[in-house]
Structures are given as C-alpha cells and as structure tokens.
Specification:
Its main location: membrane. This protein is mostly beta strands and 474 residues long. The protein has four helices and 28 strands. A hairpin with a 4-residue loop joins strand 5 and strand 6.
Length: 474
Amino acid sequence: MGILKASEVSDLLEFVLILAPLFPLRLRVRYLTVTIEPLLPVVVGDTVTLKCNFKTDGRLREIVWYRVTDGGTIKQKIFTYDAMFNTNYSHMEDYRRREDLVYQSTVRLPEVRISDNGPYECHVGIYDRATREKVVLASGNVLLTVMSPPNNISVVAENTPAPFSRYQAQNLTLVCIAKGGKPAPSVYFKRDGELIEVISYVSSTVDYEGGGSAGVRGARPLISRDLDDTKLRKSLSLLGPDGRPGRLYTESPGRSYMARQPGQEPSPATETFPETVVSREFPRWVQSTDPLYYFSNMQIPQSDGSVLVQAKLTWTLNPQLDNDALFSCEVSHPALSMPMQTEVTLAAPKGPKLLITPARAKVGDTVRITVQGFQNEVFPEPLFTWTRVSGRLLDGSAERDGKELVLERVPAELNGSMYRCTAQNPLGSTDTHIRLIVFENPSMKKNTPNPNSKYLSASMIRFLDCVSFLLPLV
C-alpha cells in the first residue's frame, strides 16, 4: 500500500465525518484527556490549589483526587466529586479534613504541612457511550513540593567539657546543628564576620551529603585581627620569672578553730587571707603556622520529613589568638528571605563565684560549695575540678569533678581548710580558692563523736577517763 497524499487524507476525513451518524454508538470515537498545572515549591503554612483540567466528549461520572505514597505503591483517596448526585466529600479523617472544593475538579489545601509533600493524581471518569454501566477513566499527576525553613539552630563544642593542656596543642571542633529544614539547608561558618574558607572532608564513619559547602575554597590565613600580638604579650605577661603562671597555693592554711567557753557566742576566725583568690593559667606554646579549618557536613533524615544537619568546623586551637574570637554559624534556605545566624564567643574561664551553704556552717553540718552564675558566660563549657589544698577531700579522694562540692557532716578539724576550684576549657584554666570556716555546734553533745573525725577516738576516751580519776569522790 502506497503512502496517502495530504489531499487524499483530507478527503478521507471528510468521508468519515459524513458517515459517522450512520454508525452505531459503540463504534463512534470517544476521547478523554486530563492535565494538571504544575506547582511551584511552597512553604509550610501556605495554601495550595490543585487544579485538574480535562476535556471529553462524554458525560462526566466522577472526579477523584489521590495522594500517592510509598513510591507509587499506595494511593490514598483524599477527595471525590460525584457528578451523578452533584456531591463532594473528603476521605480524610475528621481531624485532618482540610480539603475544600473550589470547583468540580479543583481542590484547595490550606496550611500545608511537610506531610503533604509528594505526588498527587487526578482521576476523571466518564460514561461509556455504549452503556452507562461502563466508565472510561483517564488521569494526570502533579508533584507538590513543600519546603520548611529550619526552626532551630545552635552551636556546641564537641567533646566538652574537656581539660586544658598547657604544653600541647589541641583541636577544637564547633558543631552547628540546624533542625526542621526541608530540603536540607546550607550551613557555613564565619569568624569575626568574615566567611571562613575551609577544607572539606568526608568522614568514613558518617553518612556525608554534599549540601552545605558554602565557603569551601581551601585553607585561609588568619584574618588581620588575629595577627595582632597584643593578646600574646598580655598572656605571656602573666607568667612568672620561671615561666610558670602565678598560681597561689596555700599549702598550710592557718587553723583558726578555737574551743570556746560555755556562754560565748561563736565568731568567725579572723585572718588577713582573702576569702577567694583567683589565678589564671595560659599555655606556653605558640602556634607557628596559620591554622587550617576543616569542614564536614552530615545530613540525617527525620521521621517528620525534615532533615537535621550537623556541620563541623575543626582546627588547631591557639588560645592566645582564639580567645575572645567570635564564631558564627549561618544557615541559608530557599524558604528563608535571609540567613539564620547564631554565634558564640570563645573565652577562657574567669574566676567563678563560689557560694558556701549554709553561710555559718557548724560542726556536723553538710556543707555545699557551689559554682554560681558562671557556666553560661564561658564557651566552651568549662570543666570544674575540686581539690583541697595540702590535703585530701573529706571522703578521702584527691579530687572531684562537678559544679558542686558536698562535704558531709564536717568535723571541727576542717575549720580554716582551703579548697581550690579549677575551671578549665581548651582555652585556659582558672583557679579559685575559698576558705571554709566551721563554728561549734552547741546542739551536739560533747561525748558524741563526729563520724568524720579522726581524732575523737581512743585517745579522747583515755583523756576523759583520766579526768574522772582526778576528781574527788563525793
């Protein structure tokens, strides 16, 4: 068979149209096309309109909207328009019934959520011309992309609290955590307002994603402010003639507890020694080369569809130059008009304020020495270590970590004892000394020994026996 010419095709179509009314209904040509207008990405809380366009020469039976999940294996009805009864209804539960019919084929979703993200299908059914018991179907689909800006960002120091190393360089890692974003936001670091150029690396132990590499162009030298050696001279000026920091150690605090006669009021011991003494310790080493900043980015999908991003910045710390440096983490996202930002200032610990409770401790009381109003002012979070000058703690240990030192049932022998609280982070160390004053407790019987006393023992009993022997008999 030869190829028909254009004129012959035209004549054939005219012939078909002329003879079409003579053919039975079941032989006539039927058509149904469905198209859906594409959607731009929307932000959580926006209102979305799903519009289904269809063309047909048949009679409409119904329009059904589906939400497709699990890669297309599950189709969930969300809305139906029944043309036979001219009614519409939602297939969602009452608490999630948010669909509104705008027109027969158009559905509005107000205040969309991340869970609304995904493909949708519009199915249109028309009656078959041969019989009303048969319905001809056609469908179209559209992808709804719901974005969510991060709702929380924070910066923490990894592996802290950590001790201070005076003679060895340490690495410091800042971790910027961005939560609630979809898609994953881009995360980058700045130092004193300037973008840090970093070396991007991938850890083999984490699931690395390529996003969030803003500012990755290789190593950068320190900015001009960091090259100022004012801080270095100031830090080194605190060292003593032998190169050691000027720390105060009172190895033999004077004992100020004195037995009082009955009727005398208790009074605190009077000394020229101050209540608290603070000394700071800085490292003796100086970094010889400019630091290299290493950057990694890990993305963790969450159950609600958002992505948690953990961006890490690691470099070799130089306390003389990094102390008081301002580091900021900035997060950019297509749903944000401007980046989100959070910042931290690196700082070596300064002398914490110590509080003793009760204020007038008596023999047998439980005494607490607590760090007050300090942890929120220093970053990274410091590590607190308690020691007793020229002696062990009441429980026999050499030191104890924590923000509080508890002394159970203090004996009289602890009066005038000196305690040292060492606050340290990778930028420096600070010692604060405080003296404990213990008063007599008139409510305690003289013949009742304190369980923590090492002196009220057999020798005291022999002394009491001796006194009773010398007294005359009545």
